[in-house]
Amino acid sequence: MTVLKTSMRNFFAHKGRMALSAVAVLLSVAFVCGTLVFTDTMNTTFDKLFAATSSDVTVSAKGASDTGETTSGNGRPPVMPASVLGEVRKAQGVKSAEGTVFSTSVTVVDSDKNNLSPNSGAPTIVGSWNGNDARTMKITSGAAPEGSGQVMVDADTADKHHLKLGDEIGVISAVGTHSAKVSGIATFTVTNPGAAIFYLDTKTAQETLVGKTGVYTNVNVTAGNGVSDEQLKKNVAAEIGGAYKVQTAKETADANQKDVEGFLSVMKYAMLGFAGIAFLVGIFLIINTFSMLVAQRTREIGLMRAIGSSRRQVNRSVLTEALLLGVTGSVLGVGAGVGIAVGLMKLMGSMGMHLSTSDLTVAWTTPVAGVALGVIVTILSAYLPARRAGKISPMAALRDAGAPADAKAGRIRALVGLVLTGAGGYCLYLAAAADKATDGSLWLGLGVVLSLIGFVAVGPLLAGAVVRALGAVVLRIFGPVGRMAERNALRNPRRTGATGAALMIGLALVACLSVVGSSMVASATDQLDKSVGTDFIVQNDGGQLITPQAVKAVKSTAGLERVTEYKLLDATLTTPDGRTSKNETINAADPTYAQDLRTETVAGDVADAYRPDSMSVFEGFAKKHDITIGSTVKVDFKDGSTADLTVRAITSDDVVIDKGAMYASIATAAKYVPADSMPLDVLVFATAKDGQEKAAYKSLKSALHNYPQYTVRDQTDYKQALKDQIGQLLNMIYGLLALAIIVAVLGVVNTLALSVVERTREIGLMRAIGLSRRQLRRMIRLESVVIALFGALLGLGLGMGWGATAQKLLALEGLQVLEIPWGTIIAVFIGSAFVGLLAALIPAFRAGRMNVLNAIATE
Questions:
Q1: pLDDT tens digit string along 816-858?
Q2: Residues 6+ apart with CB under 8 A from 352
Q3: How does DSSP assign 541-583, residue by residue?
Q4: pTM summary value
């Protein structure tokens, strides 16, 4: 009880000094809990949606996926004859059955040809209005579609794009473009995560999406009273045979949820990873806080020992303070985490993915995990300072306050740090020298971990040399004040090292990712310059295929010398060694693709691969299956027949664009794949006539005006799009790393604040002998700047080493160019100085307000 009282007294006596450490714990716990609440809420939302929209039993065409996604390579959904509906209705236990048609391989535009598809990545669905959808949607305006000239739209899409009754929209599919006017608006009775949904009558949906009537994509079956879904499934399957896919509501919902979980898991663990980095940075803050508090209470602890307190009691007293800190910060963090989750939901809402706060899900494991993690990390961080506190002898009460220095421990730490740093450097060397990216990635991961730990351990040793070097460049120009700031930073190298290490971790990751991202862009740009011989690329950024109507519009554009179509066909290959390779892809293109992409070969000429009944294979595949020029490969095309194709070229693996591709001509594929099963184009390449590039570019954009889902890019546009994509990804990562950097800044603030308290008497004496308040504040600010620059220098140097090593592994995948983004590196380094200035504002202000006499009188 005495230990608890003492701990409580000390905790509240230093509550201001504990606040920043508590904020670090709060931020880290909040990020963890916010991530868990957000992903759990999304799971709940999708669970409810899938459960509500799944009929008791669903019958679909054999080619349909388990998730209900109906898109196929030819742009039309897999269908079954309408006669199946009659057979289903005959099955025992069927209360009702209804045939439907829907597709997600569509684009919907308004009268001005603006794309109405969501920008959140959610699908655009066009289908027939049916009773199953009526369970989850209520017509709130107008009426359901009747006839080919009418369409109904969901309320969220109508609100977003300001659609009203009577507005004209166009549905673009592989069949063609169908125009209709809005006849009704339907509102979801469950949460819609962002899909745009349009309803036609059944006949119009069949004609618009499939190109013929008398077919369905699905039959929705409702069970009679007392009939389970499983029993109904067996009855329906027995009635219609095995030619179709039959699923219960649970199977359909589970398949949809599994598909969503893949995305959610990646997001969840990525965000938790950044939270872990924030926790790691927070450890340094907590260690520094308790180390300085212990140092400032040396005399108090010595007196406690002198009147009978044992080492164990002193140790427990400090750990109890850490427990109070951890509990306080964690509990507040759990509450803040719920707020973060709600904020993320609002953010997703602004992007088009609607999540209702009524579905907010806080599992009991979330606050338990958050509090447990925060408390454990805080106690472990405080363990070393507590252990040092327990070693203070009673004689320390007779001396001036100050933490007992352990020179032996410092030497051991430096030695361990040097060994780990050396081991990490050697692992990075092995990664850079690896022959396979998979092998090198293991060495890279180990090298990153060891070098990071090594730099943290050797930080106090590096602090002396680096701070002196920085002082010579940055501080000396400020005269005596600058020299005092340098000496203050050098006074306790362990403290400076720990404070700088907190900032080092975040900036090391920033530097590493900047190098990797810049190298990827530079390498891809270099490959484009060397390999691409076409002027324009037409594609759908959302991954949809290019409809025949759009291809026709491209080919009719004036000023073009050639147009090349490019398709992907699934196939099973049987190689000369007798082995079968399933799930392979044949890249079928027009022969002019050999001019559009100058592909390097190790044998043969890639242009010969477009001859009749010919193909190319890539180098790795050829070596694995002992394929040479002239070898015959049996190609069993999906939805087609088997072809015997002769290998005319073997392409190099040392490329970026189309790495691992196997080529054949579209004409060859058309001999073995029926026209109605032939996939649509993935890309279309166009080359302008000499001197007509600008005019052709403008004409091509104009020709595709009616197809806003497709983007026309010249090589400059393509390079910029690639740069923007990587830049957006890096900006998102930098945003998440900002949490760790904020925690590191709090560490600098806390270190300076406690340092000012520790040097109260010294500051009073300096003020007494003539140091002005302005000079004092400048000294504190300069000390903060040099500590921040110390952390930045270590972090940026370490990160560039990691990034350069990672680029060596990327070079094995064809990304040959190493590019250091010096602009970013220099900006981050300069920004670190401003971070130091910002962190010093409050400590410097408090130091400047000290009463000189009271400060001198402080013991």
A1: 888 888 988 898 888 888 888 887 777 777 777 777 666 676 6
A2: 118, 119, 120, 122, 160, 194
A3: TTSPPBPHHHHHHHHT-TTEEEEEEEEEEEEEEE-TTS-EEEE
A4: 0.79
